[in-house]
Write a structure and sequence with these properties.
The protein is built from 21 helices and five strands. By secondary structure, it is mostly helical. It folds into four domains: 131 residues, P-loop containing nucleotide triphosphate hydrolases (Rossmann fold, 3-Layer(aba) Sandwich), CATH 3.40.50.300; 77 residues, Orthogonal Bundle (Helicase, Ruva Protein, domain 3); 87 residues, Zinc Finger, Delta Prime, domain 3 (Up-down Bundle); 83 residues, no CATH class. Strands 2-3-4-1-5 form a five-stranded parallel sheet, with helices on both faces. α5 links the parallel β2 and β3.
Length: 451
């Protein structure tokens, strides 16, 4: 294989844009009149947080901004750096400040810094010693101090489009100075497009794949001309990649939210797509199985109780079969739940019941509902006047009150007229009416008012 350039630097590093004219994508931020256009053009340096997926250009954009102001660019990684490194950067910035120069402190993966570490450089951002530029793949509102966020503007970068990635790849093939030059592989347009697609919005991944293609096509000897890649070799080049997914990050929660909402919205096609996305990204199928079981109770409930059983069966099937065979059982459950009638009546009723239990405290159980296993308990009235429902007409003790005496009866469960709950609601309405009528009879007619 050939070395990746005279200096041994990877292609992705060599091809970093040197000016904004070479920067591909993010037109919503750096295009004319857009939020970052003034900073990139050298008309207003300010602290910022660049939030976006890997390979979207965060580090490159930070370097371009610093270069417009001829500022010292101090790059730290929050994975490796600590407060000591930040203090060293502050000392360097203070020395340069005396010479009339500005300093940009670029902190990659800033979300890896804990709150105390983030606070360490706030005073120098505040007094202008440092201009802070942070890069993160995680939602800043969850990961960064509010004090830091108040001093930095957040810019959201998008995954690069297919067109932007193709432009980057073609530039690397054509650039004789920094690109592949004579090592450029003989790729068809279809192969180039396949590399861009496999990169999944990540410029670094696209260039790494292109460089690997050059190595595979370079022949056995350093002087050999690049060859075309046969179908099997090219397929192997693209194999093994996963889509953007991080089990602890924003993409994880966004995708499980999309799956849940698709099921709730009765869209089996979208639900299956998001299930496939999560599995393709490497999500633990066991986690998905647990969430699908939750969906069965939260969004289908008694409108179709079979949904809960099917979700549990799908989980058990996956545990027995594993991947990929067991994934079909999960897909079956997701499709069924998406098509099933929807009800959150139990979910809402349970929430209201829990709220009352927390609010009203330890109300005693009425005596007639208590068991009386001893003579003393019977003498105290435990279980007295309890009506055994099986001995009542229709197996229902109309008018009986099962709530604490200090609490007015509540109605938590209101089945909607969908699925099985249509019948449940009709039966429940009939019984509630009978119970209300019986309760009125037991209380007797209201007393007449006397003059």
């Amino acid at each position: 294989m050939n070395a990746p350039g005279a200096e041994g630097r990877p292609l992705a590093d060599r091809m970093r844009p040197r000016s904004i004219s070479e920067f591909a994508g993010q037109a919503h931020l750096v295009g004319d009149g857009r939020p970052l256009a003034h900073a990139v053009a050298g008309r207003g340096l300010h602290s910022m947080v660049l939030w976006g997926p890997p390979g979207s250009g965060k580090t490159t954009l930070a370097r371009l901004v610093a270069g417009q102001y001829e500022a010292e660019f101090i790059a730290l990684s929050a994975v490796l750096a600590g407060v000591k490194d930040v203090r060293a950067a502050v000392e360097r910035a203070q020395a340069l400040q005396g010479e009339g120069r500005r300093t940009v402190l670029f902190l990659d993966e800033v979300h890896r810094f804990n709150k105390a570490q983030q606070d360490a450089f706030l005073p120098w951002v505040e007094d202008g010693t440092l201009t802070f530029i942070g890069a993160t793949t995680e939602n800043p509102s969850f990961e960064l101090n509010s004090a830091l966020l108040s001093r930095a503007r957040v810019y959201v970068l998008k995954a690069l489009s297919q067109e932007a990635l193709l432009a980057i790849l073609r530039q690397a093939l054509a650039d004789a100075e920094r690109g592949l030059g004579a090592r450029a592989p003989a790729l068809t347009e279809e192969q180039l497009a396949a590399i861009a697609e496999a990169a999944d919005g990540d410029a670094r991944r696209a260039l790494n794949l292109l460089e690997l293609a050059a190595d595979l096509a370079g022949g056995d000897s350093p002087g050999d001309s690049p060859q075309t890649l046969d179908e099997a070799t090219f397929a192997g080049l693209l194999a093994g990649g996963h889509r953007r997914f991080d089990k602890r990050g924003e993409a994880f929660y966004d995708q499980i939210s999309a799956l849940h909402k698709s099921v709730r919205g009765t869209d089996p096609d979208a639900a299956l797509y998001w299930l496939a996305r999560m599995l393709d990204g490497g999500c633990d199928p066991g986690y998905i199985a647990r969430r699908v079981l939750r969906m069965a109770s939260e969004d289908i409930g008694n409108a179709d109780p079979r949904g809960l059983a099917l979700a549990l069966d799908a989980w058990n099937a996956y545990e027995r079969l594993g991947s990929p065979e067991g994934e079909l059982a999960l897909a079956q459950a997701v499709a069924y739940l998406a098509c099933a009638p929807k009800s959150n009546a139990v979910y809402r009723a349970w929430g209201e019941a829990r709220a009352d239990a927390e609010k009203l405290g330890s109300l005693p159980v009425p005596l007639h509902l208590r068991n009386a296993p001893t003579r003393l308990m019977k003498e105290l009235g435990y279980g007295r006047e309890y009506r055994y429902a099986h001995d009542e007409a229709g197996g229902f003790a109309a008018g009986e009150d099962y709530f604490p005496e200090e609490m007015a009866p509540r109605r938590y469960y209101e089945p909607p007229p969908r699925g099985l709950e249509l019948k449940i609601g009709e039966k429940l309405a009939k019984l509630r009416k009978e119970s209300a009528t019986a309760a009125l009879r037991r209380r007797g007619p209201p007393e007449e008012k006397k003059d």
